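Field log, afternoon session.

UNIT: design team B
ACTIVITY: writing a sequence onto a fixed backbone
BACKBONE:
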């Protein structure tokens, strides 16, 4: 394959994730994007298939008990020559750490807002991660078929809270019972919203009426038309026009409107992703000790593990490492190496179509391949043909909950330590070992991670673990210009010093306030809430 073909294959891929606050409509939108993209045929399949898969493979009990999906997957579909890789992120807010990591594998994100609610806490949190990584964002304002906030107020809120320029691509006419559709500000065509009659099947097809045509008077009343003209003129005059460069560098968000449930505005969004969202990015790496930028068109196959999906088949304890391909044309049967010298022959790479998986023969930059393994790979590992390319940037996030793990039988303490290390390598939870004593402190971003950990330790390791309150409420990774400064600090704060899984120094705070205080008193020490490990 020539460099040109490789660049063309990479160039037609759009790898993106959807971020939202629970209930804003992410699942409904995902389903309808897949439908509009022809990936699935029947509405309800995202959930329905999820159900069968869970029953069929006896997916983790916790998922069934709680009816939530705790693991992210990838959905690939092709439309008009564009390959979309939709990285599904867990909906439950407790699983934000998983969501964060999935975002490291995405080139862009769709932010779904409920038109009645605007920016909600979880949206803000996820947005911060996107900003940290310069991930460009398209905003989709959902549920226009319900009574919504004024669009100017919504866009103002996005502008204020996220410090982003907002460029509406469409402009809505009314909302709720008075929702008539939306005007494409680029070509002045009106996309008509039709409320389906009872029992009528809706499609993603929308009638387009030019604003200059007489027919527009049949779509809405004179008053509504006048209001649309006025507000859309105001939007054009008062808000910035869409600028592709500003969007791609992360300072502007184009805004789309619609109703995922009513299948309205979904194809427009898909076209927006195809047209505006960036193709696979060039990625920072370290090669033989030197900082380099890896282009997708580089011949060598490289990638990184952003997620481990465990227990797809509990009988075989298989682990599937989700690898985001960064460069090169991957072929089935290739041998890829980690930077610490492990070589893996990838003879059965998996590809994900909605909830099905199948063996794939080749993959290109932007694609995600599932590499089955027995624990050789961990989150953050880099893979390449040479074993020399190391990607930086799969972050660990400072845990918000810290608990002490204990087993009733003291003879099993060693066993517990090993099991917790394994889980931390997989990224289920984090593990901290205080410098003094033999406590095992488990950290998580969300409480549900503890339930998953407990369930897995029981099922896979036969351990009945207890989580007790720990004296700590927050953790920060610490570093300093001079080693002596760091050592002096740790010496002075021995009882609150610890190491993470990789042996990196950590300060355990009794309260978040204490961390701020200690930080102020020790200006030579850096306290960080995220840690990026080179893989
Ligand atoms: P999430 O994944 O972001 O948590 O949201 P999800 O899609 O599950 O949607 C949350 C609720 O909002 C669902 O209703 C869904 O039907 C509804 N919804 C999503 N998009 C729209 C929309 O465009 N318009 C309207 N009116 N509702 C929308 P539910 O009653 O909680 O669940 P369900 O019984 O309908 O599944």
């Amino acid at each position: 394959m020539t460099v040109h073909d490789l660049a063309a294959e990479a160039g037609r891929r759009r790898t993106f994730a959807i971020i939202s606050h629970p209930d804003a409509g992410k699942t409904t939108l995902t389903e309808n994007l897949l439908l509009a993209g022809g990936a699935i045929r029947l509405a309800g399949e995202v959930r329905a298939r999820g159900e069968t898969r869970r029953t069929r493979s006896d997916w983790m009990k916790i998922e069934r008990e709680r009816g939530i999906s705790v693991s992210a997957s990838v959905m690939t579909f092709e439309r008009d020559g564009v390959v979309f890789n939709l990285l599904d992120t867990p909906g439950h807010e407790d699983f934000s750490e998983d969501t964060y990591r999935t975002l490291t594998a995405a080139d862009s994100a769709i932010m779904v807002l409920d038109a009645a609610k605007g920016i909600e806490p979880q949206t803000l949190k996820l947005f911060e991660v996107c900003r940290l990584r310069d991930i460009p964002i398209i905003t989709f304002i959902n549920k226009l078929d319900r009574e919504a906030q004024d669009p100017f107020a919504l866009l103002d809120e996005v502008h204020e809270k996220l410090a982003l320029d907002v460029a509406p691509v469409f402009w809505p006419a009314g909302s709720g019972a008075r929702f008539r559709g939306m005007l494409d500000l680029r070509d002045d065509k009106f996309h008509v919203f039709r409320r389906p009659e009872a029992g009528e099947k809706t499609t993603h097809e929308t009638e387009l009426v030019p604003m200059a045509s007489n027919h527009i008077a049949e779509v809405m009343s004179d008053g509504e038309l006048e209001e649309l003209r006025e507000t859309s003129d105001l939007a054009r005059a008062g808000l910035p026009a869409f600028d592709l460069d500003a969007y791609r560098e992360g300072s502007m968000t184009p805004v789309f409107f619609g109703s995922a449930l009513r299948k309205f505005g979904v194809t427009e969004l898909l076209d927006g992703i195809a047209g505006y969202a960036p193709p696979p990015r060039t990625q920072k790496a370290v090669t033989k000790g030197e900082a380099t930028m890896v282009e997708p068109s580089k011949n060598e196959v490289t990638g990184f593990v952003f997620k481990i999906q465990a227990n797809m088949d509990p009988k075989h304890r298989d682990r599937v490492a989700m690898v985001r391909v960064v460069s090169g044309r991957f072929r089935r049967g290739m041998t890829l190496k980690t930077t610490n010298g492990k070589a893996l022959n990838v003879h059965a790479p998996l590809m994900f179509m909605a909830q099905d998986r199948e063996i794939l023969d080749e993959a290109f930059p932007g694609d995600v391949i599932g590499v089955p393994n027995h624990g050789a790979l961990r989150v953050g590992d880099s893979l390449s043909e040479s074993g020399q390319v190391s990607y930086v940037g799969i972050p660990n996030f400072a845990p918000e909950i810290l608990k002490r793990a204990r087993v009733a039988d003291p003879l099993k303490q060693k066993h517990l330590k090993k099991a917790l290390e394994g889980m931390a390598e997989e990224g289920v939870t984090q593990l901290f070992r205080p410098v003094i004593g033999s406590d095992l402190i488990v950290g998580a971003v969300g409480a549900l991670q503890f339930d998953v950990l407990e369930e897995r330790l029981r099922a896979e390791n036969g351990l009945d673990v207890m989580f007790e309150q720990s004296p700590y409420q927050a953790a920060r990774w610490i570093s300093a210009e001079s080693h002596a400064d760091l050592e002096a600090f740790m010496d002075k704060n021995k009882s609150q010093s610890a190491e993470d899984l990789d042996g990196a120094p950590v300060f355990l705070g009794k309260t978040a306030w204490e961390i701020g205080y200690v930080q102020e008193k020790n200006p030579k020490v850096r306290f960080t809430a995220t840690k990026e490990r080179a893989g």
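LOG NOTE: The CA atoms of residues 156 and 166 lie 8 Å apart.
NEXT ACTIVITY: expression trials, pending approval
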